[in-house]
Specification:
121 residues; 3 helices; mainly alpha
């Protein structure tokens, strides 16, 4: 069998081809190790919420009213904060739109100046 010079010739001359073939046979002939599938992803857990405070009092109705009022106050405070954030974001949008309009005007002026300079040459 005539061998061509190149990649296979280099392997043959160093005796590596026999080693590679032996290794390939061993890998192909040996029993494959069992492969366990990766664990299934865990479902996303709901965010943990702190337990409701337990208030011991002789008058349970007044506790419920106080707790309801406290919850209502928290909701109102959150609404106020969100309304403030929304107003800030709306102001940022207005500022961005104004800057964009100014930049567009500046670009148009520069383009007109370029055309004017090109016409002179």
């Amino acid at each position: 069998m005539k061998m061509q010079h190149g990649f296979m010739h280099g392997f043959m001359s160093k005796g590596l081809l026999v080693s590679c073939l032996s290794l390939a046979c061993l890998c192909a002939c040996s029993d494959p190790e069992p492969v366990e599938p990766p664990p299934a992803p865990k479902p996303a857990a709901a965010p943990a919420q702190p337990p409701a405070p337990v208030i011991v009092n002789a008058e349970p109705e007044s506790d419920a009213v106080a707790l309801s009022e406290e919850s209502l106050d928290k909701v109102k405070a959150e609404q106020d904060e969100l309304a403030g954030r929304a107003a800030d974001l709306e102001e940022q949008v207005k500022d961005s739109e104004m800057l964009l309009a100014m930049k567009e005007k500046q670009i148009k002026e520069l383009e007109a100046q370029l055309k004017k300079n090109a016409a002179r040459k």
